[in-house]
Amino acid sequence: MGKAYKSLSVNLKNKGNRRILVAGGAGFLGSHLCERLLKEGNTVICVDNFSTGGMDNIHHLLRFDTFSFVRHDIVEPFDLAVDEIYNLACPASPPHYQADPVHTLMTNVLGSLNLLKLAVRYKARIFQASTSEVYGDPHVHPQPENYWGNVNSFGPRACYDEGKRSAETLFFSFHQQYGVDIRVVRIFNTYGPRMRPDDGRVISNFVVQALKGEDITVYGDGSQTRSFCYVDDLIEGFHRLMYSQGPITTPVNIGNPCEFTIGALAEQIITMTGSSSRIVHHPLPVDDPRQRQPDITMAKRRLGWAPTIALKDGLKSTIAYFENQLARPAKELAVVA
Ligand code: NAD
Ligand code: UDP
User: Fold this and answer.
1) Ligand 1: residues whose CB is within 6 Å?
2) Calpha distance 269→265 (Å, rounded)
3) pTM over 0.85
4) Architecture in CATH for domain 15-333
5) Any idea which residues carry the catalytic annotation?
6) For residue range 223-281, what is the model confidence (pLDDT) as tens digits?
7) Is the CB of residue 134 less than 8 Å from the CB of residue 168?
């Protein structure tokens, strides 16, 4: 493990309870996580390469004197003294993670390796944001954690799916070999404020299209399913997993088991926005999973966690967020890249 590391210089005005690194903290989920950790009185250092995340998501956190951010790509080794690490760094939307598949894979493999080495060096507990994509196009429904999945290793989604699978293996190997205290969450489709209007995932696409009166682009016939979790529920699940007593040496599914077809989602968003948009059908992307629903028995039993926010309520605040975003001048929406 003896390699030269770039020591990250962090500009912090004050010191909080625990010193926490959030890799990918300027993204959609990362920014909500940073906010929660800061409100609890911690020092939070966001390390992000600003590829899909941006200042827009973390600007409001600059009022905390225990918050700092560093622009850095986790693929490059670095040094930073920390008590805890959360790894959320990775583009999550198919068009974004497929834009540079090699870098997506390296972010998951080399990036995770770099963070795990930090965890060893500083004896820090480390959390990995894994994904329901490790189940691929599942043959078991709903998906429990002990299902090994059905993943294409060379298709267009492989850089993400196999990257996340490799990252899980690295986490469990570091636990077995070096005793690293790990937590691994498998996140199912999550939505909410601070997704980018051009994120490319289904809820942001449909809401933005509906608000602009543009065609709603349903891929395939719309009969494929997903189960959508609101961001606040997810962050509560993260928290319970990270701070649960005793080791949890398996991945844990966190998601909302309420399953919808993509066609039904499009209809609901049209109704809720009062939009005049039409539904149009585009070809189904290669390897698009047919169905997805988390089995959350383990999260309920081990963490006492279950989602509380229904899709219609989560959509209400998500629609309000995008209405606000779309009303802003275009240059204000620019993402730092
Ligand atoms: P996002 O794209 O909004 O956030 C990812 C963040 O990571 C961005 O700020 C981006 O700039 C940063 N990043 C990417 N590559 C990096 C690198 N090499 N070095 C440093 N920073 C890097 O996506 P999100 O929805 O917030 O997802 C966050 C994490 O959760 C990801 O790891 C994703 O795979 C996982 N996840 C999310 C969902 C979901 O539904 N939102 C589902 C499953 C898994
Ligand atoms: N989808 C769609 N129209 C869009 C974007 C996505 O019909 O404009 C579909 C996509 O094909 C998939 C589902 O919605 O079946 C969820 O896609 P998303 O990219 O949000 O997440 P993932 O496929 O990674 O679960």
Assistant:
1) 23-24, 26-30, 48-53, 73-75, 88-92, 107, 111, 129, 131, 187, 189-190
2) 6
3) yes
4) 3-Layer(aba) Sandwich (3.40)
5) 160
6) 999 999 999 999 999 999 999 987 788 999 999 999 999 999 999 999 999 999 999 99
7) yes
